[in-house]
Structures are given as structure tokens and as C-alpha cells.
Amino acid sequence: MRVFDLLVRSAAMSPDATAIAHHERNMTYRQLYQASVALGRHLKELSLPEGTRIGLLFENSVEYAVSFFAIFQAGYIAVPMDTSLDADSLRYLLTDCEARVLIAGFRFRKILPALVSDGSTIEHVISDRHMSTGRNDLQVELMGDIIGSPEEDAAGMEVPEFIPPETDSPAELAAIFYTSGSTGTPKGVMLSHRNLVSNTLATVEYLKLTGSDSVIVILPFYYIYGNSLLLTHIACGGRAVIDNRFMYPEVVLDTMEEKAVTGFSGVPSNFMILLSSSTFTKRKLPSLRYFTQAGGAMAPEIIRRLMSAFPGKEIFIMYGQTEAAPRVTYLPPERLKDKLGSIGIPVPGVQVTVTDENGNELPPGEVGEIMVTGPNVMMGYWNQSDEEREVLREGRLFTGDLAKKDNEGFIFVVGRKKEIIKTGGNRVSVKEIEECLVQCDRILETAVFGVDDPILGEAIKAVVVTRPDLPMTEKDVADFCRAHLASHKVPKFIEFADSLPKQESGKIDKIKLKTGRRNSHKNTGELSQ
Hints:
With 529 residues, the chain is an alpha/beta fold. The protein has 15 helices and 28 strands. Among the domains are: 1-167, Rossmann fold (3-Layer(aba) Sandwich), CATH 3.40.50.980; 421-526, ANL, C-terminal domain (GMP Synthetase, Chain A, domain 3).
């Protein structure tokens, strides 16, 4: 089974059920299938080489879903793009994967010329509305001209026939999801049809999803967790309810009530905001059946508050990585109270081992690295063989997370080997921020690390040594970062020091910085985000 087969199967079984809901727009499975086929056929007519990568730059929307499945229908490779990135970063990704087609929303009209200017690999652009590419030889094709208006009366549309594949999903490249690397350079995680389909069906199984389920989608589809929400609900014949307005929590809660969703999925900061800054706990939400949480560790106290506010709802604590497509473990709701703080047990079909430095399994109670095997483990990193060799060995994924198992096999994460900060559900490279800061001619050296944060789960902190003759304020440092980094990579805490503690090797001793055993500091502060 390929990714597109997930849609074909549900369209054959429930053609008139709603697949995607976004504000007042509703698209049935029949309509989603027909629109995806129409766009997919158009992509095939472009006579692109086998294995062509297609960039997808859309906010969560009906158009995103249509485009995503159309790419698979055409037999090409989808490359979802982070919509929060600036033009330079997006162009880097498009160039890195040598994308020939860009499907982009009208919102990105101002940066489109920079994305497809001289030297770009982009040969075709498709959008929901007309916009200029800045190139005489490259015109934008309109999605509406290609697929028509699928929301109109579809009574005459042909319902697809689903014939179950005789073999497992093929282990050929389906999509590339970019994520931050330990070097600061984005890594293109290559996921096969087998990776995505196997993990999707396993998640459907342990969440017990059916066609009567619907999920409120506040996480972007380009983020692997958000992508999982789309695929699992298409796979089960359920409904994905899109609401991109989480900055207004009450609006999202209203949508949850009005659309009678059965599931809510978020990262720790989403739950913190809802519990602390909304009427969340005062709402009955009678249709809601479950919560899922991933994207970083959520403090046990927050889990307790959620359990107390919604005693009748199932709460699934989950762990995963983009490299695992993404789900690795889940904590069964019935074990939440007695296993609080655990990431649970492996999802169906996946094996999780706690290993020593040589890859040997450790007994319960001993701390080692989480190693994953199974059909969900990525194919590798696009154009980054060195980084790939660090984490992928003979089909085994070494996650870089340190953990231990208890006597029942439940896993507890205790830390990370690599300097990657998980803040608000985003993975951020420490090296990338440090390299950015030292580009400032007023900064001599810096050290960046994560600190516990009640809202973000983990916040970014930077300790900075400036030139004595060119002092800086917290705002100066933050403004410099904002000019060069995505907003979620800007340190929340900035501290100034006369010097940084060093090990005998000359490396900065971050343990001393984290524990406060360092040289005298001049100032420290928290930045308003």
C-alpha cells in the first residue's frame, strides 16, 4: 500500500463523508480524491523525471491536502515546507532537494520571486491565486483551472474502486521532511511509503480511530506530528478539522465545540496555554474522546492538571522523531497514573531498545540510548551521509535520547546526547544559534543550552560574552537573532558574563553554566516573546 492508497480506500468506503473541514469549507472523500487525481494527472503531463521532488508551501488548508495527495498520485516526492521560514531559508531547502515544481499559496506572493530567481531549480509554479514569479519564462498555473471547483455538486463524480495491494508498502522514497540537524544545517529526512503507511496504521490501531473520529488540527501539516494527524484521519475515514488560529485559544475551543471533534492533539506549550489562559477547563467538550501529546516532554504537573480537568477523557502521552515517521512509543491512558513521566511502550510493529555505547541492550534500570527498529525507521538523510551514519546503523535508528526501562518495559527519558533543544514542539540546533550569535562583531563568545520552562517545556538560554568597549542589552542580542533566525529559535533567556568556564580541553563547560557554577555575570533577563 502506498500513501495515496490510504485516500483511495476511504474514498471507496465513505465517499460522501467529510474528509477536511476548514472554517466554512468542507471537502468530502469523493471530492478530495477527484481533486487530487486531477492535479496528479496534470503533474504527470509536465513530463517530469522519475523521482522529481515537489515543494509544498501552503498553510494548513484544503489546498494543502489536495496537493499533498496529488503528488503521491503522480508518483513524485513531496517536500512539505516550513511556512515560518524566510525566503533565504526556503530557497535553500528548494535548492538542496532540487525541487522542479513549487506548489505555493498566495500568502507567499511577496517572496515567490526570491524563491524562483536565477539559479533556482524550479521550472513550474502552481498556486490558488495568480501571482508574479518575477520571471518572464515562468508563469503561475492556477489550481482552480486544473481541478475545477471540487466543493460544487459532486453527485456525478465517479467513486474510486479500492483493490487491496498484494504486497507491503514499497520501501521507495515518498516524502522529505526537513528538520534541524546537530550541525545547524537542516536535514532532509527521507521517508518511504512503507515508513509513512506502517506508522499511520499503527497509530490508528493504538488510538482506536474509526470513521466517526475527527481531530482539531492546530499543528502545521509540514511538521511531522501535524502530518500524522492528516494521514491517520484519512486512513480511518475520519475528519480533519483545520483551525490555524491557536493564537486565539477561545476561537479554537469554539471550533472544537461547534465541529464536535473527538480528538485534540498538541505539544506541551499548547496544553499550557489552554490550561492557563483560556476557558478550557470550564468547557464540557462532550464529543471529545481523547488527547494526544508529543513534541517534547510535558511536565507531570501539567499532565495532572489535564487529568483533573477532564477525568473522563483518554490522554495519550507519545514520543517520536521525524526520523521514525514519527511515532515510536505511546503511554496507554489506563497506565497514565501509575506510570506518570513515562513515554510508554513501543507502538505496534516497532521495537525499542535501551542500549550501551556499543549498541548492546541494557537491563531494566540502567540508562542508555534509545534505539529503534521497525518499518517506520527512515531511509536516511538527503545529501547528508555523514549525519546519517551517526544515527542510522544497519537499519537501526539511534535517537540520541537517553532513557531507562522499568521492570514492565515502560520507558522513561532522562536526557539527550545531542545538543538539540525541543522548545514548543520545535527541534532547534544549539550550534545554529551559537554560530549566529558569534557573527555579531560585538560578541566574543557564547554558549546556548535548554532550560526547563513551564510553557515551552524547554526554553532557549544564551550566555553571552561581549566586547568590553561594545556592550549590548538583552534586546540588542534578541534583535540580532530575530534578523537571522526563525522566531522560535530566538533565546528566551539571555545572560551576560565576563567569561565562560572551560574544560581542560578548552571546550566550554556547559554543565557549570547550567548549574550556575561560573564566572561573575553582568546581567540576566527574560525576553518577552
